[in-house]
Amino acid sequence: MHLRVRHRTSYRFDQPQQRLVQLTRLTPPSFAGQTVIGWEIGLDCDARLRPARDGYGNDLTMIYVDGPITALTIDVAGEVLTEDRAGIVQGGAEPLPAAVFLRDTALTRADAAIVALADEACAAEDKTLARLHALNRLLAERMRFDTGGMDVALAAADALGRGHGVCQDFAHVFSAAARSMGVPARYVSGHLFRRDGETDQPAAHAWAEAYLGDIGWVGFDPANGISPDDAYIRVAVGLDYREAAPIAGARVGFGTETLDVAVSVVEAGIQRQD
Questions:
Q1: Which residues fall within 8 angstroms of residue 78, CB to CB, at 6 or more apart?
Q2: What region, left, alpha or beta, does residue 33 occupy, with left being phi > 0 and alpha being psi -120 to 50 degrees?
Q3: Model pTM score
Q4: How many whole angstroms separate alpha carbon 115 and alpha carbon 109?
Q5: Fewer CB under 10 Å: which end of the chain, C or N?
Q6: Residue 109: its H or E element
Q7: How far from chain centre, in Å, is Cα 257?
Q8: Which of 208, 214, 217, 272 is nearest to 244 (CA)?
């Protein structure tokens, strides 16, 4: 599939800021089944951009803006060719051993309910891959996808207890449950082309990947109960949301800020109907 992405992040400050520093994970890599054919990061002010790569192999762009500044918009646009490889990820940068992704974090620590969910998946199937697919289905059945709000500090155990959440929460619960099964798992941030015709989205998408020794990394999207196909664009990975978030930053200045995010993912060559 030939997909075109636009990801716009806008900040507004009620008082001028002296300096802004943004760490962005906005550029997807190319690997088997995903080929980036064009990608740009634009800003609406003078800034210094410095490319880098983190310990997970993610492409970073550091953004430095000197003030005084009262607003900032980061506008990302690009095109990607994708293939359906049944969620299997091959040919990407993997600087770390898979065992690193057995570590839990404050956001992905398994409690008794998450362990019980993992045990239920294990009881349903006898092979690891089948158990992970069962876990993916169980999460899609037990939790309701809710776009009403995103709490970046919400832990996996609390999300499962509530019974609803955004894609970030589904990915955290899946990762916590898989790790409790002894399977390395990680959080993935990226974009999703919606086949229902909805092109405008309030945020980027998120899912999880688990590691199987005879296959490698395999993706699972428990928010939709499937493995990623050619509608998915994979951007960054980490132990949890905080380590794979599209943007994280700091500012020097007083006052409050407002944030607005707009994402669109369309199939190239398809005209939008407004």
A1: 4, 5, 27, 28, 36, 38, 39, 40
A2: left
A3: 0.94
A4: 10
A5: C
A6: none
A7: 23
A8: 208
Pairwise CA distance, residues 15 & 173, whole Å: 38
Asked if residue 134 and residue 214 are part of one domain, the reply reads yes
Residues in Cβ contact with 172 at an 8 Å cutoff, skipping those fewer than 6 apart: 107, 108, 155, 156, 159, 187, 240, 241
Q: Can the peptide bond before residue 68 be classed as cis, meaning omega within 30 degrees of 0?
A: yes
Question: HSE on the CB side for 116, CA within 13 Å?
Answer: 7
Closest CA to 20 of 43, 51, 39: 43
For the chain, what is the domain count? 2
Distances (CA, A) of 110 to 115, 163, 214: 6, 15, 26
Q: Which residue has the tokens 């570590």?
A: 103
Residue located via tokens 């876990």: 135
pLDDT digits (tens, 9 = 90+) for 77-101: 999 999 999 999 999 999 999 999 9
145: CATH: 3.10.620.30
Give yes or no: residues 146 and 13 share one domain: no
Q: List the domain range (segments joined by +) for residue 24.
A: 2-81+246-267
Single out the residue of 137, 112, 242, 147 nearest to residue 187, CA to CA.
242
Mapped onto helix, strand or coil, the DSSP state of residue 161 is helix
Amino acid in position 148: G
The pLDDT tens digits for 203-240 are 899 999 999 999 999 999 999 999 999 999 999 999 99
DSSP conformation class of 28: P
